[in-house]
Amino acid sequence: MMQTKDQCQGCSQFTTCYNCETTITPLWRRDEAGNTICNACGLYYRLHQVQRPVTMKRNSIKRRKRFNPHLITDQSNNKRMKSKEHETTVISSIQSLLNLSQPDHPILSNLILNPTQFEQALKERRDHLQKELDHITHLLSKTTEILNTVESILSLSTKNNHPPSFNTIPSLYSNSPSTHSNIHLPSLHLFSPS
């Protein structure tokens, strides 16, 4: 039975919920018995299979915050436009860098245009520098050996009061490789005993 209140023949009718007796709802529903119920009571019954308690009745309708689809598309369009503006700015910055780098700075243009080839060139350069460093380290160790030999000979010669001569240090010539024979030895005649 539909719950409408007729106070008189000419008066307007208003609908009330059979369960909670509210008169305000965004949507009227019917229960299994055919009674008119408010949206809240109908949804509660569908979810819990029991009538909604009257204590849960509200005086105002609680509305969900919904997104305006027009607002969302406007925001996404704004994001796309800002993204395109940013992309254009980045591209123009890269182009200006390339224009600056073309005649004077080929390294920069290679880095931007072909990063993998640039990385390979850097690795080759690093390997070459490592070989040079190893060679210099080897030369330094040989030099240290030579200096240690000279020191020991000098200390022996000063103990014996004999001036050092090149005949007493033949190892200096035999240890030095022919490719590095441009090592200049100090003039040893300056070390005369006093």
Automatic annotation (TrEMBL):
Compartments, record wording: Nucleus
Domain GATA-type, chain residue ranges per copy: 11-64
PROSITE patterns attached to this UniProt entry: GATA_ZN_FINGER_1, GATA_ZN_FINGER_2
Xref: Pfam families: GATA
UniProt keyword terms in alphabetical order: Metal-binding, Nucleus, Transcription, Transcription regulation, Zinc, Zinc-finger
SUPFAM superfamilies given in the database record: Glucocorticoid receptor-like (DNA-binding domain)
UniProt cross-references to InterPro entries, sorted A to Z: Transcription_factor_GATA (IPR039355), Znf_GATA (IPR000679), Znf_NHR/GATA (IPR013088)
Transmembrane parts of this sequence: none
Any one GO BP annotation for this protein: negative regulation of transcription by RNA polymerase II
GO CC, alphabetical: nucleus
Protein name per UniProt: GATA-type domain-containing protein
